[in-house]
Amino acid sequence: MDGNFSRVGTEVYSPHMGFEKFAARFTQSFDEVRIAARSFPVDRAIGTRVTGERTSFLDLGANRGVAALLTGIPRLVARVSRTVADADVLLIRFPGNIALLAMLICRWRGKRFSTEIVADPADYFSDAASRHPLRRIARAVHCWATRYAATHAETVRYVTDYTLQLAYPAHHMRSVFGFSDVYLPDSMFDQREERAKDPQDSFGIVNVAMMHNESKGHTVLIYAIARLRARGLNVHATLIGDGLLREKFVREAEQAGVAGAVHFAGSMGGDEVRAAVARHALFVLPSFQEGMPRAMLEAMALGVPVIATKVGGIAEVLELKELVAPGDVAGLCDRIERIVKDPAFRRNEAQRHRSIAQRFRFSTLQSHYLTYCAELKARSLT
C-alpha cells in the first residue's frame, strides 16, 4: 500500500494507521499480518506504532516522487515480488504507485489478490487538486489501474457505500464490500470532550489534512477566512497537518492578510488531534478529493459540527443541500457565516452530525471486518 508512514530508528509510525486503528482489525481473523509500504525517516514520531501483536512492517524503501521511484525500481520490484510470493492472502489498497506495481507483479506471476479502493484517482489528480506537470498522465494510469483491480480482484472492498462503486465497479462474480475503515472507539460516543468556549467575539475553525498537494482545499479555506473577516466576522482557523506545500499555504495566508488568524499547527498524533478538534466550534473540510474522510467523521463523533464539499463519499454521510461545491469560496463563506451567527443552528448541526457518526463506531465496523476477513480467507482457499 501507499500511506503516510514515518520511521524513527527501527519503529514505524502513522497518524491514522497505527496498530489499533488498522492491523488489529485483521489480527482477530489472521495468524499474522504484514504491512508492506514505504516509510520515510523523521526526527519525531507522529501518530502511533504501526506494528503490534502478530503484525510486522515490510519496508519498501523511502523513494518519493516519480524520479526516485524510477531510479529505485529494481530494488523495489524485488521487494514487492518477495512480498507477493510470500503472502497467503494478498490485499492491495488502491490508488497508489506501490499498489499498481504489486498488481502488475500479481498478474505476471498468476497470483490472486484482493483489493481495497479508498479514493478516486480522478479527483486526486484533477487539475484543481494537483499542479504536478504529469498529473494527467498519472490520472489516466491510476484510473485504469483502479478499474482493472476492481474487475480482477478476488474480493473488492470500498470505503464508501456506493460512490466509489459507481466509479470503479467490480466484476459481478466478485465478493464486494462497502464500509469505512475509520477508527472511532465506542468510548468517543460515551462522553463529549469539553470544548473550550470561544471568546464572545471570536470563532474557532479547525481543519485536519495533509499538505502534500492542493487536493484538501487549504487555499480555499484561507481565502474564505479572509473574506469572512472582511465581512466583520472575527473567525480564526487552525490547520493541523504538514507536507511539502505548507510554506506555500503560509505565504498565501500572509498575502491574504490573515497570517494572524490562520495558525499552522503541524502534524499531531491521534489523541492530540482529537483534543485539538474538540476545542474548536467548527470543522471545515473544503477538499477537492476524498474517499470517506476519517478526520471529518472523528469531528462529528466528538460533537463538533462540520462543513464539507461534495466530493467522494461525503454525500453518503451529509445531506446534499448542506455541502459546498469544491473550490466555491463564496458558498463556503455563506455556509460558515450561518454557523457562526446562529448558535441554535450550530448546536442542532452538532447533535445531528454526532448521531450520524454512530454508524461508524468501532464495534459496528468491526462486525463488518469479521465478515470481510472470513471471505478473504475463503477466497484464498478456493
TrEMBL record:
Highest taxon of source: Bacteria
UniProt-listed SUPFAM superfamilies: UDP-Glycosyltransferase/glycogen phosphorylase
Cross-referenced Gene3D superfamilies: Glycogen Phosphorylase B
A Pfam cross-reference name: Glyco_trans_1_4
UniProt name for this protein: Glycosyltransferase family 4 protein
Lineage: Bacteria, Pseudomonadati, Pseudomonadota, Betaproteobacteria, Burkholderiales
